[in-house]
Amino acid sequence: MKLVIITGLSGAGKSQAMKCMEDLGFYCVDNLPPVLIPKFAELCFNSNGEIQKIALVIDIRGGKFFDDLFDSLENLKSSGYKYEILFLDASDETLIKRFKETRRIHPLSPKGRIIDGINAERKKLDKLRDKADKIIDTTNMTPGQLKKEIRKIYLDGSETNNILISVLSFGFKHGIPLDADLVFDVRFLPNPHYIENLRDFTGNDEKVRKYVMNWPESIEFVKRLNEMIDFLIPFYVREGKMQLVIAIGCTGGKHRSVTVANILYEYLKEKGHKVSVNHRDIPADVVKG
């Protein structure tokens, strides 16, 4: 079980860090009272493997409860639970600017100057910063750059194998899927709809698939489509994208798009990607062959 405690200065990006950790599959809890950390770790440990990665955001918002943090960390250690601390920091000027932009009040200076709250918070977090396993200075970082840095630290395995790919077939006459990142039009391929003994079947049926793929242009298109997706995936991952929706469209969304979507799904699955396939416009009452 991996346990990460996210802490640091108010305005340094802890909320953004937590969102990124969620995208990486961490079970995240914000502002958990520190005294509950050992019990929470025990519950997760006894979850029969359902919860393997945990991220807890702990900071001075906990008020007097925050003072229990060091005792809780000692309890974790004595109970055999390993943890690491991720500390987010930023310059005073940057923190002041962020508070002013969001018009938020510093939790340690609700009626005073922002800088007074920052100074008090730095003093309160000084020992915790010294215990941190990893420190990220977000002074010159955009949210996207922070996300990239966290992914670099906590992403397990190959990055390209952690993006979730959804392959979706559809019919243009029913509208392009709103959530599509990439749309490919296969209406140029020979249409089984005009073959009487194929019309009532779908691309899930072998006879339709054989017909669609029985043409040189179909074979060449699928080859180039696979190459294009292979080329694009690393760049989407580099930009921090966690999910990619690839839509394949034909006229009705029943024959050609289904065939190509299935072939692309099989190709990506064979390469080890996390991939699913869905045929949006096949009528619910159509029986698959």
What's the layout of helices and strands?
Blueprint: E1 2-8, H1 14-23, E2 27-30, H2 37-45, E3 53-57, H3 69-78, E4 84-89, H4 92-102, H5 114-131, E5 134-137, H6 143-154, E6 164-171, E7 182-185, H7 206-212, H8 216-238, E8 243-250, H9 256-270, E9 274-279
Parallel strand pairs: 1-3, 1-4, 2-3, 4-5, 6-8, 6-9, 7-8
Helix pairs in contact: 1-6
Protein name: UPF0042 nucleotide-binding protein
Pfam family, one: RapZ-like_N
InterPro entries: P-loop_NTPase, RapZ-like, RapZ-like_N, RapZ_C
Q: How would you characterize this protein structure?
A:
This is UPF0042 nucleotide-binding protein. One of its GO terms (molecular function) is GTP binding. It comes from Caminicella sporogenes DSM 14501. Keywords: ATP-binding, GTP-binding, Nucleotide-binding. It holds the Pfam family PapZ_C. The structure is a single chain. This protein is α/β, with parallel strands linked by helices. The chain folds into two domains: about 160 residues, P-loop containing nucleotide triphosphate hydrolases (Rossmann fold, 3-Layer(aba) Sandwich); about 120 residues, no CATH class. It is built from nine helices and nine strands. A five-stranded parallel beta sheet has the order 2-3-1-4-5, sandwiched between helices. A four-stranded parallel beta sheet has the order 7-8-6-9, covered by helices on one side. Helix 1 crosses helix 6. The mean pLDDT is about 90.
Alpha-carbon Rg, integer: 26 Å
Q: What is the overall pLDDT average?
A: 89
CATH fold annotation of the largest domain: Rossmann fold
- The 3D shape can be described as elongated
Strand order of the largest sheet: 2-3-1-4-5
- Listing every helix as H and every strand as E from the N terminus to the C terminus, the arrangement reads EHEHEHEHHEHEEHHEHE
User: What CATH architecture of the largest domain would you give?
Assistant: 3-Layer(aba) Sandwich
Classify the secondary structure makeup into a structural class. Answer: alpha/beta
In total, how many beta strands? Answer: 9
Q: How many individual helices?
A: 9
CATH class of the largest domain: Alpha Beta
Oligomeric grouping of the chains: single chain
The structural domain count equals 2
Q: Largest sheet, described in full? A: 5 strands, parallel
CATH superfamily of the largest domain: P-loop containing nucleotide triphosphate hydrolases
Q: How much of the sequence is in beta strands?
A: 15-25%
Distance between the termini: 43 Å
How much helicity do the residues have? 25-40%
Low-confidence stretches: none
Protein name: UPF0042 nucleotide-binding protein
Domain RapZ-like N-terminal: 1-154
InterPro entries: P-loop_NTPase, RapZ-like, RapZ-like_N, RapZ_C
Binding site for GTP: 59-62
